[in-house]
Structure formats: structure tokens, C-alpha cells
Amino acid sequence: MPASRGGRVHEASIHRHASSFPPRSLLPRPRLTTRLTLSSAESLRGVEVEKCRKEIREIRDQFFESQKKYFDYNRTSPIADEAKLNLKRDVPNYPKYQLSQETIDYLKQPTFNIWHWEPNEMLSLLEHMYYELGLVQEWNINPITLKRWLLCVQENYRNNPFHNFRHCFCVSQMMYGVINLCKLTESIPLCDLGILLTSAVCHDLDHPGYNNAYQVNARTELAIRYNDISPLENHHCAVAFRILSNPECNIFRNVSETIFRDIRAGMIQLILATDMARHNEILEAFKSRVDNFDFHNDEHLTSLKMILIKCCDISNEVRPMEISEPWLDCLLEEYFNQSDREKLEGLPVAPFMDRDKVTKPSAQIGFLKFVLIPMFSALSKTFPQIEPIMVKPLIDAREHYERMQEDMENGRKKAENAAAT
Question: Tell me, what's the pLDDT at 420?
Fold first, then answer.
């Protein structure tokens, strides 16, 4: 425990992380009532945290200097950006936050605004989830090990426009919200809930910002290593368990070998399920079981868990428009970065990623209509309580983008008529 800093309690400021945020004009104003309170008696000053992270980076660089060949996963990125599989040694605590009851309750809601929280606050919120669900006790996790693991996870998310640590937190918070909304603690074993949450935390580790299609077409090291089969998802799994291979970051260190094997198998299965190339296969398997769903049937339960992580992974449109639309801007920026590179390299370009062809409505209407709404509707047959809270917002979002598309089309026609006269 850090030495006392005088026992004074003050509020932690809410900052936007420049590399993870959309333009300032797109963000809602912070709700001051949902801010965290920092207990300085149990914390480090911000400058000490930054010093700690600098030391971590130095340790990482020294340890992996002789192993750089393992990290050139994507030839579009420099080695320095790849060497992220690092050991955490002698890592002091990041600041300890005490959550207000309002924040604790708000964290369980699908409408939770993920744009209001700075990185250290997101770490504390993730830490709270493990305590509140009883996972710290279930797996006998050392509290310092949990902190080290979360810090290491954060370090291994890159500063991509979309696939970054804030996206990790967004997906994890939605999983936590679904667990509470659907009262999954009453129907799913606690270890399985832990596998769900931990898979959400790890599901995009070290994402390079270029999707599987690019990896395969560009014949990157990842595509070669995994034989073109879900190269990114396999990589995310590998990074997750490389982190856990360090005893000081291994939150499963105190579970039995049998339980660890089950956890590992479950996490790999769920993270691989986030590959959208398998979407129809996974959804149809779940729909075939949903009318007679049996929580005591292992195949049914596995199918449900795969649907749950898929839903959480692509759940942005479930949130209010002022929260979800900035995410779309971030996603399109990442898509455009990829398509620009594909054009330069003479590789195939997907129309939905081409800045010269795609618009916000064209990007979302089909995705909402054919992917999101059918999948969440199928889930609502098992959990009817999500219908008004999750399915209805998706329908509203589709109608919003349909109106936007109509307005854009009308504007185009007016411009053409004006040019013709």
C-alpha cells in the first residue's frame, strides 16, 4: 500500500485522451455528477505514475531487445510500436479511486458514457468489475497482480483511432452491463462470467489498425503465422496469454491447473468468435437453440457466450446517439487509413472502407439492418429485458441514418437542379 499523502480526499479530473478521442466538437459535455473521487491516502501522484510507466517501457525495451524478430507482426508499423508484450516488474499502484454509489449504479447501464473517463479511471472501473462480480475471491487474485495485469493490458492496446484501450473498456463495460441487466449471475457459473469479462478485456490486444483482409492480402507476418485463419483474433489470444505467462501479471496464478485449462480454452473460443467472418455461422447456431435454450447444456451455454461477446464487441449503436456517433467517426478514420494504404500498395479495397465511396448512412444502415438488429433480436428471445433497452435503440439508430441518407440525397438532387438551371 502506498504511503499516506495526508488523508485529503479530492475529485479526480476528467481528461480526454488525445489519441483515443474524436474531435472535441463531437463530444458531449461531461456529467460532473458521475466523476470519481480520488483517495490520495491510497494513491500515487500523476507524475509518479508517469515515471512508473517510463520505467516499465525501459524494462520492456531491455527485455525484448534480443527478441525483436517476434514482434514485426505488421510490416506497416515500426518495431518500436510492435514491442508491446512486456513484463511488469515492481509496478506501484496506479491511483486508487473510490466510486460514488451513483457511478457504481451507472456503470451497470448500457447507456454508460465511455467518453467521460480518463485512462486511470477506466482502469479503476475495470478493477471494480472484478471485485463486484466476486471474481477476485473466486480466483483468489492478488490485488496487486490485478492492478499489474490491467496496466499491462492497457499498455498493449495501440493508439489506433478505433481499436484502442477505450474500445477495450467500452466492450468490457457493455459485457458488465449485460451481466447485470440479464441477471446472468443467476443462470451462468461465476467462472464462465469471468471468462466472458476477461475475454472482453483482451479481445483486441495489440490490434494493428488493419483488419484481417489487409493482413491476408498484404501477406503480413500475422497472416503467414496463422495461415490466413483469423490472424488478428489468434494474435489477440496469443498476446493475452503472453501477458499472463508473467507470474506478476497472471490473475489466474492461484487457480488449479484444471480450472486454468478451462479458462484458457474458454477465452480462446470467445476471442476467436469475434472474427466477423464467422458471424453467420455463430448466429445461426445460436438461433437453432434459442427456442429451447437450456442453461445446463454445455453446447447451448457456449453458443450463448459467443453471441454475448459478439454483441458487446459491436454494441456501440446500443448507446445514445451522442455516445455512439463519435465511435463511428473513429471507425471510419481507421477504415480510411487502411483503404488509403491498400490503394498505395495495389491491394483490394472494400467499398465500405473507401473514403471516396462511403458515407455515415451507407456505413451503418446495412450493418444495423442485417447484422446488429437480427443478432440482438435473437438474444432478446432468451432475455426479453433487452428488447426496450438494446433492440429498440438499434431500430432508432437505423431510422436516424435512413433519415440522414434521405436528407443527403435530397441535398444532392437540389444541388444538381441548381447546377442545371
Answer: 81
CA dihedral 93, 94, 98, 101 (to 10 degrees): -120
Interacting residues of 371 by C-beta distance below 8 A, sequence separation 6+: 279, 314
The pLDDT of residue 66 is 37
Of 116, 128, 163, 235, catalytic: 163
* Cα–Cα distance for residue pair 39/321, rounded to 1 Å: 33
- Would you call 316 exposed, middle or buried from its count of C-beta atoms within 10 A (0-12, 13-18, 19+)? buried
The one-character DSSP state at 93 is P
Active site residue 279: no
Q: Please report the sign of the dihedral spanned by the C-alpha atoms of residue 131, residue 133, residue 137, residue 141.
A: negative
- Between CA 421 and CA 418 the distance in angstroms is 5
Tell me how far apart the 2 most distant CA atoms of the chain are, in Å.
Answer: 78
Neighbours of 414 (CB within 10 A): 10
pLDDT of residue 386: 98
Whole-angstrom distance, CA of residue 127 vs CA of residue 150: 8
Query: Grid coordinates standing for 32?
Result: 460532473
Return the number of other C-beta atoms located less than 10 Å from residue 306's C-beta. 22
Q: State the angle between helix axes of 119-132 and 165-181 in degrees (0 to 180), rounded to the nearest 10.
A: 30
Q: Are strands 97-98 and 9-11 parallel, antiparallel or unpaired?
A: unpaired
Cα gap 327→324, rounded to integer Å: 5
Secondary structure (3-state) at 11: strand
Stretch (H or E) spanning 129: helix 119-132
User: Which residues in the chain show pLDDT less than 70?
Assistant: 1-96
| Residue 355 three-state SS | coil
- Cα 183 to Cα 95, 113, 190, 318, 379: the distances in Å are 31, 21, 12, 19, 14
Helix, strand or coil, per DSSP, at residue 96: coil
Alpha-carbon distance 196 to 176, whole Å?
9
Which helix H or strand E contains 385, and what residues bound it? Answer: none
Residue type, 311: C
